Amino acid sequence: MVSHNINNTKTQFLEHQKQKMGLIPVTVVALWYVIVVFVGFPLASNAELDSSFYKNTCPNVSSIVREVVRNVSKKDPRMLASLIRLHFHDCFVLGCDASVLLNNTDTPTKIESEQQAFPNNNSLRGLDVVNQIKTAVENACPGIVSCADILTLAAEVSSVLAGGPDWKVPLGRRDGLTANRTLANQNLPAPFFTLAQLKSAFTAQGLNTTDLVALSGAHTIGRAHCSFINTRLFNFSNSGKPDPTLDTTYLQTLRKTCPNNGPATNIANFDPTTPDTFDKNYYSNLQGKKGLLQSDQELFSTSDADTISIVNTFASNQDAFYESFKASMIKMGNIGVLTGKNGEIRKQCNFINKKSVEFDLASAVPKEVWLAHSK
Ligand code: HEM
């Protein structure tokens, strides 16, 4: 498992910035200051996104996405959780630009896929569903809708289909031209993070403590591999004992699902009572010491933490949770977006266009779509 040492990374980053600053004239630094102070933190810029972005060019995009996701989730209800997570893992690395969807390639540009980063490897799900959605959308409106917007729409529709809130999804993102595995390892929070580390990972993306607590509520659905909780069950912090913040009855249940040295493919539900329903139970579970990951339980069991009262509010008021979740999902969906002439609209979500036309599109997309694009 990778050591997600945010502090080290941050120190290295700051050191790097200081060295760079030494080479930059004072006027440029001043200009940068003006941009950051008066225009806002660049990562958080979103002015150009608009929920009616495809009104004239692809009016049915939302229902196309919904129908594909609905069909898939009939057979695989967990897919709703997987698609929400996919959007999160996209946005925390280079912004919401569908970088997470890019496969490894050598030419024309070398791309080290984020899919093999530690938090994603053997864990990310839904890549094939996104391709299915993209094919359906391309059939209706070729070359119009970005893969980044598809990920965002799929996350919203997944919330709704799991019984959670709906919201108007700001659209108009464009797809990035590269991926970054190193950043994926650095930016994505780990299940063994302390509250301070979690906050730091979210702050780095322009997200605050309420965003952290609200977005963690997505863990009201879905599953986690036993490998992410094994030390909590058997040898927490090398103590030879389980995590003391874990309810003892729940501990016994989890040990049955996740025996010591059990198969690597074993998984446990995040929410033991309503595993596929998007409700506020995540928060009452935390109150009952039934958070699955250490990072979940940290939100309630860290002494004197400011997150405790937020957990209590969401546990007692589902509307409050939904309102915050919607707002935080929109905020997360705005991270580092590419708009206007930046990036591109990928033809096939797993490859940048140059690559897909040269090598891969023919096998991945129906012939007529490929022919239409290669003209
Ligand atoms: C706060 C820090 C977070 C940490 C440390 C974390 C960590 C994890 C881990 C370790 C898993 C299990 C993956 C596996 O076993 O394959 C997981 C699953 C999941 N995460 Fe998170 N996560 C965090 C935040 C979020 C956020 C912000 C969202 C979305 C808004 C999210 C949505 C999900 C969902 C829905 C699943 C279940 C996926 C499935 O069943 O396929 N997580 N997370």
From TrEMBL:
* Free-text function comment from the UniProt entry: Removal of H(2)O(2), oxidation of toxic reductants, biosynthesis and degradation of lignin, suberization, auxin catabolism, response to environmental stresses such as wounding, pathogen attack and oxidative stress. These functions might be dependent on each isozyme/isoform in each plant tissue.
- Which Gene3D superfamilies has this protein been placed in? 1.10.520.10, Peroxidase, domain 2
Indicate the residues that form the catalytic site. H89
Record's subcellular location:
Secreted
Q: Which InterPro entries match?
A: Haem_peroxidase (IPR002016), Haem_peroxidase_sf (IPR010255), Peroxidase_pln (IPR000823), Peroxidases_heam-ligand_BS (IPR019793), Secretory_peroxidase (IPR033905)
Official protein name in the record: Peroxidase
* Gene Ontology biological process: hydrogen peroxide catabolic process; response to oxidative stress
Q: Which organism does this record belong to?
A: Lupinus albus
Positions that bind heme b? H219
Instruction: Kindly list the GO molecular function terms attached to this UniProt entry.
Output: heme binding; lactoperoxidase activity; metal ion binding
Chain positions recorded as Ca(2+) 1 binding sites:
D90, V93, G95, D97, S99, E114
Pfam families, A to Z: peroxidase
- UniProt binding sites for Ca(2+) 2: T220, D271, T274, D279
What reaction does this enzyme carry out catalytically?
Answer: 2 a phenolic donor + H2O2 = 2 a phenolic radical donor + 2 H2O
Which Cys pairs does UniProt list as disulfide-bonded? C58-C141, C91-C96, C147-C349, C226-C258
TM annotation in the entry: 21-44
Principal EC category: oxidoreductase
Q: Can you cite an annotated GO cellular component?
A: extracellular region
Q: Where is the Plant heme peroxidase family profile domain?
A: 48-353
Q: Which cofactor does it need?
A: Ca(2+); heme b
